[in-house]
Write a structure and sequence with these properties.
The complex is a heterotrimer of chains A (about 625), B (about 100) and C (about 170). In chain A, helix 3 runs antiparallel to helix 4 (about 120-140), helix 14 crosses helix 18 and helix 18 (about 400-415) runs antiparallel to helix 19. Chain A has 24 helices and four strands. In chain A, strands 1-2 form a two-stranded antiparallel sheet. A two-stranded parallel sheet of chain A has the order 3-4. Chain A is mainly α. Chain B is elongated and about 50 Å long. By secondary structure, chain B is mainly alpha-helical. Chain B is built from three helices and no strands. With about 170 residues, chain C is mostly helical. Chain C is globular, with a radius of gyration of 21 Å. Classes of the chains: A mainly alpha (about 625), B mainly alpha (about 100), C mainly alpha (about 170). The interface between B and C is large, with 72 and 84 residues. Chain B: One of its GO terms (molecular function) is NADH dehydrogenase (quinone) (non-electrogenic) activity. Chain B: Its EC number is 7.1.1.-. Chain B: One of its GO terms (biological process) is ATP synthesis coupled electron transport.
Chain lengths: ~625, ~100, ~170
């Protein structure tokens, strides 16, 4: 059903970004603009987007329709037409709901976090632009529009990571994020092209591709599916393109919360779900995706156990949870994966915002041992942090339990016991390192307590709202065996997800197993860290603490190699060979000209002699010509 | 016995010796005298053809040529005096200011 | 018969004088050689029934121009060391001979294709002063006037060029 409202979900934050940018220019060129104006525009527009989404959602629940909106024909070449149109079906509205809601809360949080910063207006302009791009991605009707949003979020991520660009490391981190994403984007683009080539339809919208997918040969579909997943690897930080995510923590915490926890990194999961009609047919690629997800989850969890920076721990934890989501969508359980995206957005954003609150309160201290040494009294943050940690560990009845358990059950049901085993062990590690974080920061005995604490309502209000979500969101997909309605699964039936149908006893046993594993992790962490001597921090040596030296490995193989290649091409090929060749040709001409010029030696007899030579030649020719 | 070819032969010989003199000798006087010799060779040719075609126009032309040679002699010798005064030498190879080569 | 012998003798004198002019190192000897050539050519003019030209040649060329050359030669007081060194004189002369050969062959071949005619001395007033004068003033008047202007210019020019300069010596250096 056509509606003119769909595009306003995107336009509202986009206009907010433009307005904020305009005001910011005015602010730095002419006259200071008050922070209040930036805040109002910056938080008002996501709220508008959320309200429109909510309205459409309620209408969809009532009448069961799908919304579309076609703006104009964008590209029309030969047989191919690409429309600039948006699709508001169940999946898109589902994603858009929590993206706008969590985004709105984080914008409010950012008011308090960025208070007093010079680039306040710039921050909100970028932030709104990011939200607009993410919504373009989610509401797109065809992969090309999706790619616009895909690229847009990459750009905004880069702009925001390098927000404090005075510090060179931030800029390097921003570059790293953008370049790693670029590698993924290249794969994505190749995948779209392959898909277009394989399907051969006259339009590229998702519905057309879905309808014509039987035209394509399986090999091309496999290739296309793989390439599209390469894009997801980059955007959602899975092995091997994950290296940018820990470094991206150099940006301000609100963006870590929004971009690298709740929204951008889930774009890969959304993309796989969106292409469900493609991935359902090529199960090998799906299995490959699941394995990558499993190994990324394990890898990240292992590294997180030895990290000492609070934001890096949370970043690896994000990567780990994304691995879970990919296990789900790889095995065909799209709605379970998306449900985990939903719950993860709540508790991860909350954890990040809590961490940000602590960091601000202690004047930008990020090392957990130092934070513990200057522990401050922050009751609300303490409470919400605890809620988030319990949720992510998978303890019922908090939301993380339901979503994670669904994924593990899916793996078990499909017979992928290796993935199930990795998932269980990673759950153990997740509980372990999250509670390690909690115990060190809040529980281990410390001598001094910091007095100067800064916190404000804009920081605590979003935390409280999200904690409600973290606790309660699980009930949205309450599994049937407990008598719930599994509303999320019901909402996302378009994806034809596989469903869990095991015997009840098997399900109970699996749930118990995951609870035992999580509790075991908590106990081990309690034993080790509850009474930890924080004045002797853990060492930073060892393979795990150095992130398995992956960054150094990539640096040697890719960065140094391309530097060597560039230097080689510059110094040898460009200067010596090409320049040398051209300059040699030039110099040869010049020297030849100089040699010829010596004929002009101002000796008149010489000139006369030469004239005579010429004339003699003419006379000889004449003699022959006249035939005398 | 004496035909046109004999006179032509004599005049071409004189002309050629004049040309050779301009190229081969460095002495400015010799060059000048070679030029006069060339002119003389040509006047001989002209007069021969005047007699051959029985036409007086060639002889008139010869008179004019001789007049021009006289004027040229005056100028040429004045310039030789100038050059000799400045360079104190009769060599034509030393005037190289218009050269493009090494020494300009 | 007589004319042939005279012709041969005069030709030999002319060519010998020319060669003497070409080869000699001292310019005075060259000038003398040229003088002989001029006189011989005058004789050849007479043989060709151009009596007026014979006289003009002797008067102007041999009498005025050669005298002027000899006069300048002695005026400049040329010594042995002023003369340029010419090491490659004969090789250059040989080269010149080579270069000038095609022209000669061409012209002589062309001339030999013309029809035969008798070139004996003509009676009457063929080359006499009156017919030449009439032809000059009737058909060639403008040329005559221009020649007189030319002679005036040459006269003035030679004086201007050769006069002693005022103390600005660099003017003569150009």
């Amino acid at each position: 059903m056509n509606t003119p409202l769909l595009v306003w979900i995107i336009l509202a934050p986009l206009l907010g970004a433009i307005l904020n940018a305009g005001f910011y220019f005015y602010h730095i060129k002419k006259q200071k603009v008050s922070d209040k104006i930036f805040s109002i525009i910056g938080t008002g527009t996501p709220l508008i987007a959320f309200l429109i989404t909510l309205y459409l959602f309620l209408q969809m629940r009532e009448e069961g329709v799908i919304f579309t909106q076609n703006l104009f024909t964008w590209i029309s070449i030969g047989d191919l037409t690409i429309q600039m149109s948006f699709l508001g079906d169940n999946l898109a509205i589902f994603m858009s709901m929590f993206v706008t809601f969590v985004g709105w809360l984080i914008h409010i949080y950012a008011i308090g976090y960025m208070k007093g910063d010079d680039g306040f207006g710039k921050f909100f302009a970028y932030f709104n632009l990011f939200l607009a791009s993410m919504l373009i991605l989610v509401l797109a009707d065809n992969p090309i529009i999706l790619f616009i949003g895909w690229e847009g979020v990459g750009v905004c991520s880069y702009l925001l990571i390098a927000f404090y660009y005075g510090n060179k490391e931030n800029v390097i981190a921003g570059n790293k994020a953008f370049i790693a994403n670029r590698v993924g984007d290249f794969g994505f683009l190749l995948g779209v092209v392959t898909l277009f080539f394989a399907v051969g339809a006259d339009s590229l919208s998702f519905s057309t591709i879905e309808a014509n997918i039987s035209n394509a040969s399986t090999e091309l579909l496999v290739l296309s599916g793989f390439l599209l997943f390469v894009g997801a690897m980059g955007k959602s930080a899975q092995i091997p393109l994950y290296v940018w995510l820990p470094d991206a923590m150099a940006g301000p915490t609100p963006i870590s919360a929004l971009i690298h926890a709740a929204t951008m990194v889930t774009a890969g999961v959304y993309m796989v779900a969106r292409f469900h009609f493609l991935y359902s047919g090529i199960e090998n690629i799906g299995l490959f995706i699941a394995y990558i997800g499993a190994f990324s989850a394990l890898f990240a969890a292992v590294i997180a156990t030895k990290q000492q920076d609070i934001k890096k721990i949370l970043a690896y934890s994000t990567m780990s949870q994304l691995g879970y989501m990919f296990i789900a969508v790889g095995l065909g359980f799209y709605s379970s994966g998306l449900f985990h995206v939903f719950t993860h957005a709540f508790f991860k954003a909350m954890l990040f915002m809590g961490a940000g609150g602590i960091i601000i309160a202690l004047h930008h201290e990020q090392n957990i041992f130092k934070i513990a040494q200057h522990r401050a009294q922050l009751p609300i943050i303490h409470f919400t942090f605890l809620v988030g940690v319990i949720a992510i560990s998978g303890i019922p009845p908090f939301s993380g339990f339901f979503s994670k358990d669904a994924i593990l059950a899916a793996a078990f049901q499909e017979g992928e016991y290796l993935i199930w085993g990795i998932g269980m062990f990673t759950a153990f590690l997740t509980a372990f390192y999250m509670f390690r974080l909690y115990f060190i920061i809040f529980v281990a005995p410390t001598k001094n307590v910091s007095q100067h604490i800064y916190t404000s309502k804009t920081i605590t209000f979003p935390l409280l709202v999200l904690s409600i979500g973290a606790i309660a969101a699980g009930f949205l997909n309450f599994p049937a065996i407990f008598g719930g309605e599994a509303m999320v699964d019901a909402w996302l039936t378009q994806l034809n997800s596989n469903a869990i149908h095991m015997s009840h006893s098997t399900e109970y046993i699996l749930m118990a197993a995951s609870i035992i594993v999580a509790v075991a992790g908590i106990l081990v962490a309690y034993k080790k860290y509850a009474k930890f001597d924080i004045y002797k921090p853990e060492s930073e040596e060892g393979i795990i603490a150095n992130k398995f030296y992956v960054d150094e490995f990539y640096d040697k193989i890719f960065v140094q190699a391309s530097k060597k290649l560039s230097t080689f091409i510059d110094k040898v090929v460009d200067e010596k060979i090409i320049d040398g060749f051209i300059m040699t040709v030039c110099n040869e001409f010049v020297s030849f000209g100089k040699k010829v010029a010596t004929i002009q030696n101002a000796n008149v007899r010489f000139y006369a002699g030469f004239m005579l030579v010429g004339m003699s030649c003419i006379f000889v020719y004449l003699y022959i010509l006249l035939g005398l | 016995m004496i035909s046109l070819s004999s006179y032509a032969f004599v005049s071409m010989m004189l002309f050629s010796i004049g040309v050779i003199g301009v190229i081969a000798r460095k002495n400015i006087f010799v060059i000048y005298m070679s030029i006069e010799l060339m002119l003389n060779g040509i006047t001989l040719f002209l007069v021969t053809f005047a007699r051959y075609h029985f036409n007086l126009d060639a002889q008139v032309m010869t008179v004019l040529v001789i007049a021009i040679a006289a004027a040229e002699a005056a100028i040429f010798l004045s310039v030789i005096i100038l050059l000799f005064r400045s360079k104190k030498s009769l060599d034509t190879d030393i005037f190289t200011t218009l050269t493009q080569g090494e020494n300009s | 018969m007589m004319a042939d012998i005279v012709f041969v003798a005069l030709s030999i004198f002319a060519i010998a004088g020319a060669i003497a002019m070409l080869v000699n190192k001292s310019p005075i000897y060259s000038a003398l050689g040229l003088l002989i050539t001029m006189l011989s050519i005058g004789g050849l003019f007479a043989l060709l029934s151009a009596s007026f030209l014979f006289m003009v040649q002797i008067i102007v060329y041999a009498g005025a121009i050669m005298t002027l050359i000899l006069f300048i030669l002695m005026f400049l007081n040329i010594k042995e060391e002023d003369l340029p060194k010419e090491p490659k004189k004969y090789s250059l002369i040989g080269l010149g001979v080579l270069l000038v050969l095609p022209l000669n062959i061409l012209v002589l071949k062309a001339v030999s294709n013309l029809p035969e005619k008798d070139l004996n001395i003509v009676e009457g007033n063929f080359g006499d002063i009156k017919p030449v004068g009439l032809a000059l003033y009737n058909n060639w008047l403008i040329a005559f006037e221009l020649i007189s202007i030319l002679l005036l210019v040459a006269l003035v020019g030679s004086i201007v060029l050769a006069k002693k300069r005022k103390p600005k010596e660099n003017k003569g250096e150009q």
